[in-house]
Amino acid sequence: MAETTCPVPECPVLGTRLLCGRARPGAPDIPLYCARMHRLGLVLLIATTAGCPSNKPGNDKAAPISIRIAAASDLSRAFTEVGTQFTAETGITPVFDFAASGLLAKQIEQGAPFQLFAAANKTFAEQVVKAGACDASTLALYSRGHVIVWGKAGSPATLADLVDPRYKRIAVANPDTAPYGRAAIQALKKAGIYDQIKDRLVLAESVQQSHTYAKEGSVDVAFAALSLAIANEDHGYLTVDLGLYEPLRGQPLRETGQRRGPGHRRSCR
Predict the structure, then answer these.
(1) What is the pLDDT of residue 259?
(2) Contact status, residue 184 vs residue 151, Cβ threshold 8 Å
(3) Dist CA 35 CA 19 (whole Å)
């Protein structure tokens, strides 16, 4: 792969253009991907800005530091890659829990010990703030998600093509807990084809699981996240019109710790 110049400025902390063609051979040579990886690297810093000491490699006196992060499923590949580089540069190890944003929000409201919550949409971010579990002042937009339709044996040319009988099983993340699933249902309804295919929908726990169903061939096509398709180098997907669903605005938040009792410490453990 030819070396490229990433359009994203160097990360002021990691000192590199995260995951662009120059930083990781074989990475998708796509400016959008580079930009998103750069922002995700900065998101990790939110969890280390309050009560978390620096632990640069080579500092023998520093104790190992880890931060626990609840992250939406569409971030699984991206956060895992950025996390590896983040650890190498800072000595801080991010421990990720990937799941549907709604499920993670519920865990956080019940006191799950996370330092950072990276939600796939604004709704669940606001939910944990309202519950007093996360700090509203740390809320920031880091990405806008894109819904795609992809199948191992081929994808439809248009959304309306899903009514074709050859698409017998169509995976979609649970719309009650997964923002991408909710967006997919909104798109189907706005396109006027939901009633025609609703009996063929196969619910997945998360958008990552929906994508996995398609990769394994257990469904004909799946509604998935563009970020997962790019990371897995899946080609030939259908990008769903952004106007058919509410914006998927990724929002990171740092927890307040107020739901974990008086013994909780906000510093990294």
Answers:
(1) 47
(2) no
(3) 9
